[in-house]
Amino acid sequence: MILSPSGPRTEGPDEDGFYTTYFEGPSFNGTFGEIRSRVEGSVARVRIATGPGRANPLGALHGGFLLGFLDQAVFVGPATLGRLVMPNWAVTLNFATQFMAPGRADLPLDCVIEVVSETGKLLFLRGQMEQERQALLTFQATLRKIRLGG
What we know:
It is built from 1 helix and 8 strands. The protein has an 8-stranded antiparallel sheet, with helices on one face. A hairpin with a 2-residue loop joins strand 3 and strand 4.
């Protein structure tokens, strides 16, 4: 399934101020299911549930899962902040990541995202993934904004 220009389905906010975005269907994005996000000052907090299916053989969160979630979060975060509005979207141009600590598969995973700069076509982001406020991964990312359907 290819997402329509309206994108994934979103509901909220809940009692904690989180909006829920549902990635559905057989595409790669569908493997992430429910992702929650909220604005916290000048940053967005993007949250996903973890579990044994997202762990490596040592029981920590798999690095591939962390990077895959990061590639979802860098879109959900700016959309939550009102910086990406449908039908405008973006593609990932660049990631720089640093793994700092193992993640636990029994706690939710948060990605805190800041928009550092924006031009007509580019978004420059930075942030970190964390559990219980402990940094697991830091990143910088660049997105290229595109306009779908015209």
